[in-house]
Every structure is written in C-alpha cells, then in structure tokens.
Amino acid sequence: MKLRSIFLLIFLLIVVGGVFAQEDGRKADNPYLLCEDTCSHVHGIDVSHYQGQVFWETVGEHSCMKYVYLKCTEGGDRIDSRFERNIELAHRYGLKVGSYHFFRPKTPVGVQLRNMMVQCLPGEQDLIPMIDVEHDGGLNSKQLCDSLLKFLVMFEQAYHQKPLVYTYRNFYNKHFVGRLDDYQLMIAMYADEEPVLADRRDITLWQYTQHGRISGVSGHVDKSRFMGHHVLRDIRYRH
Fold it and tell me: What's this model's pTM, rounded to 2 decimal places?
C-alpha cells in the first residue's frame, strides 16, 4: 500500500510539473504574452499627448483593454493637445472613457475646476472623472490635503458625483492616510505584488506598470486593472 502511494505521488508530480512546463513554454514561445492575456481582471490604460498619435481602431480591435482615462487638463490653464481627438476616437472604437485632471496644489482650486470643466464634459463621460495627485507643490501634508479636499468638494458640487483619485502608494501613505476615505482610489505601484496602503483601505484600481505595450500605441503606456471585487460599473458616470 505504501509503495502504491509513492508511485501515485510521483505520477502527480510529473503531471503538475508538465503543466507548469507547458505554461512556461507557452510564455517562452510568445514573449508578447501579457498579464491581460492570461488573467480574468478588467484592464485599461491612461493616455495623454505624451503617447503621440494613438491608432484607436487598433487599440479597440486588437487589445484586451476595456477602458481608458484620457488627460484633459492640468492646473489652471493647460489643456492636453490631443484630448478632443482621443476622446472622440476612443468612444468610436468601443472603449469606456473617463477624463482626468492633473492637480497642481498651489494653483487656486476654483481656477483649476473651471479649466477642467471646459474640457471634461459630462455628456462625453462613461466613467467618473479622475483627479491625478502626484506632487505636493512644496506644501506640507495639511496644506496639501486642505487644497485637494477643497477641490474635491467643488468638483462634486459641479458634477454631482465624487471623482476617482489617482496617486502613488508611497505618496498616499505620506500625505493621505485617513483623509480620502470617501473617495475611490487608483493606486500606482510598479511591482509584482498588489499594493496595500498603510491604513489598509480599499483600492478600486491598480496602475501596475508605466511601461506597458499595446498595439496601436507607439512607445510605453500606463496600464491598470481592477482590484478585488471591483468592476466597471463601480466607476460609471451617473448621468
């Protein structure tokens, strides 16, 4: 009986090893096999003028990307030069689209909101707009939070819904622990493991690389995916 068990164990090890070897071989045969090709998560990208001309028909037809966040504005006066073309074509070729504003903490928040509202039109949004917060502008944590929270409240009054907030894990841990509990988050962390915040709060989206590649975009593009139980309807724009 003991000998039979040993043979069974050896057989199982051979079978399991063969499965892993086959998977490794599949990846070796196809070096372009990516996370979004092999997992069940919902993936997307964010795009700005830095990507240059994007061939949206190719993105829509030949990638696993389901959504895109497009840069519309920055600070009080900057407008992304490719936003209008990008949002028109991204819609045309089937992606769910949201817009994002790059937040400048020292620029008056009313000026920033007016700049954003010129470009980020409710009728063009499938997804709630996103506020990109990456720099403190030389402010301390309290000053930064005061500026950002004032902007977020004004945004909600204008758009009648809360925006998504994007930031880096370490930046969040330094400035925002316990301060953004009412807002969904996209957290950037470029590592193999999923991000965990210092306050262990829920994360809706994880931007897992800034060096992604997809057909239709030359050069690198940021890629993200949903975390845990979250799905696209969690960030849909309520019209």
Answer: 0.85
Closest CA to 123 of 100, 97, 104: 97
Contact 126, 237 (CB under 8 A): yes
Interior/surface letters 69-92, b for 16+ CB within 10 angstroms, e for the rest: bbbbbbbbeebbebbeebbebbbe
Identify whether the C-beta of residue 116 lies closer than 8 Å to the C-beta of residue 154.
no
Q: Would you give the DSSP letter of residue 201?
A: -
Residue 106's Cα: distance from chain center in Å?
25
What integer is the mean pLDDT of 198-213? 97
Residue type for position 122: P
**Phi, psi for 65 (deg, rounded to 5):** -75, 130
Euclidean distance between CA atoms 51 and 29, whole angstroms? 29
Query: How, if at all, do strands 130-132 and 164-168 pair?
Result: parallel
